[in-house]
Amino acid sequence: MSIEGAGTARIDVAGLGKSYGGQRAISGFDLRVTGGELIALVGANGGGKTTSLRMLAGLIAPDAGMGHVLGRDVRQPQRADRARTGFMTQRIGLYPELTVRDNLMFRARMHGLERAGARVDQAISGHGLARYAAVRAAHLSVGWARRVQFAATLLHAPPLLLLDEPTAGLDPVTREDIWERLAALADAGYSVIVSTHDLAEAERCARLVYFQDGEADGPMTPEVLRARGGAATLDAAVIALARQAASLKAGARKVEAR
Amino acid sequence: MIGRILAMAWVEMLRLLRTPAAFTLILAVPAFQVVLFGYAIRPQSTEVRVAIAAPAPDAGVGAATRLRAEPSVRVMGGVLPPGGAAQAVREGGADIAVEIPEVRSFSNPFAPIRPVRLIVDATNPALTEAAVARLTAGYWQDAAQRGDLGAPSLVVERLNNPDARSDWPFLAGLIGVTVMISMVMLGCLSLAREREGGTWEALMTLPASRFELLAGKALPYVVIGTVQGLSVLGIGAALFALPLRGAILALCGLLPLFAGVHFLIGFAISARARTQIAALQGAVAFYLPAMLLSGFLYPFETLPLWAQRIGAVFPLTHFVAAARDVLIRGAGAPAVLAALWPMLAAASGIGALALWAGSRRID
């Protein structure tokens, strides 16, 4: 599986930010991604990972920063760009009343794919979903529902994949399977950006962006993040960085109180 | 045990009070309804339009004078020639016709004895039956006071609805009410359910325009609403002898538009609501005034003018009027056309609103 334009910058954004009702959700998000890269967004809950992915997907217009995603201005999301992006939402976005096959057919038709039936059959066999093809999504376990969602995200072969915690709640075998597929996609020239809480998984990525309290730091290699946290593992580094940030905040509050 | 019950009650109360939708449902909606309907649903006795016809103008003058003294009666113009009053009712220019027959006199001693005829448009008996009873009683009371034992008898002829069946106008209106309630509810749920179920965000990632999404969502409901309206019509005809006459095909042709407009209303409400309960609350807040101010339960003409003006905004009001005109009065396509224009205006306005409301991004 290979993909066109793998060498060109698919994402080139700087200083992206977004606020909700005066509350800053994310600021200072910089990223430059070419084809064939696998990048992880890591950090605590509420750090701004999902908001950043949504801005890249064109679901949210940033209110700060600039740049381009797949050649379009990131500040002016266009509907047509969605055909070239695969966005996997954190919540299971399948219609529970529809079977696995019907869910995939719906996605294929919405993307206007030719030979939709054949493409769906290919996705079903390629992702090991044949046993569940006629099962309603409501009856799937979280693991299988995520696999279906993953297959649906790839159905139209978009050059840019944005995956919001694709392995959340999955067993180790399914997680491993999804990460192997992500690595294979990056090798084939796709640009893959994944948000995750599993830092052992994030170690597989060449670069990471670290999110803390709405501020993005990076991209950087896993080694750099470990060094910043002064720890041997990413887990320990992220915990150390979070504690440093909390103690800095507490100090600032004390100074303000005086 | 008591402690656990109280703890549960405390949590439930806190959840209710901290859910704006539930709070509004408990207090704001009932308060709004009491105020609106308390003032609006005070059926006022409307003027019944009466036309009088007599063989000679002088013969009708006395009757006209007496009728003008009746409360809630408006005598239309002067005394018409025989048959003119009945014609006025048939053409919609009057609600009741009084056809006074030629009476025996010195100049015409052999005139046949004929009754006085009250010809009534009984399309909506709730509007005219009280007036008929009043006029009949007044006629005999008058004759008794004059000691006129030879007064001609009085016969009442009801047009369109000979048995003054009050279920007919109700059933005709019920077609619209049924479709309206289900379409608004389903429209509300269609989007709120997606948002709560997590499929809305996934849908937003697809390269479909707002119009494509809205039209695709509306299409099945338009079919369902049309079938539902036709079912009510069929059941009304089969079980309650609701007449199928006039421009019935044109009326049926109005159903998809009517269903679509109400689906769009539900969708627009839902697009601004965060949860399914809030959306359903919005649906109730819409369809209750629409139902009560449409003329479905209370004759439209008896509502205060300000309530009529609000009622005219609801597509249901126009559908109920068209359905009654067509099915009971046997009216032709113009009656349906009269409802079509306000409905098209509502469809374009609400369609634009639904597109705008649905344009909210996932943030």
How do you describe this structure in short?
Chain A has 258 residues and is of the alpha/beta class. Chain A is built from 8 helices and 10 strands. Chain B has 363 residues and is an alpha/beta fold.
Radius of gyration over C-alpha positions of chain A, nearest whole angstrom:
19 Å
Q: Approximately what portion of the residues of chain B adopt beta-strand conformation?
A: 5-15%
Element order of chain B: H for helix, E for strand: HHEHEHEEHEHHHHHHHH
How many beta-strand runs of chain B? 5
User: What is the makeup of the main sheet of chain A?
Assistant: 6 strands, mixed
Low-confidence stretches of chain A: none
- The residue-averaged pLDDT of chain A reads 86
Strand order, largest beta sheet of chain A: 6-7-8-3-9-10
Characterize the biggest β-sheet of chain B.
5 strands, mixed
| Shape descriptor of chain B | elongated
Distance between the termini of chain A: 62 Å
| Strand percent estimate of chain A | 15-25%
Mean pLDDT of chain B: 85
- Could you say which structural class the secondary elements and strand pairing of chain A correspond to? alpha/beta
For the record, give the distance between the C-alpha atoms at the N and C termini of chain B, rounded to a whole number: 44 Å
Number of strands of chain A: 10
- Chain pair with largest interface: A-B, 26 and 15 residues
CA-based shape of chain A: globular
Sequence stretches where pLDDT stays below 50 over 5 or more residues of chain B: none
Tally of alpha and pi helices of chain B: 13
H/E order of the elements of chain A?
EEEHEEEHHHEHEHEEHH
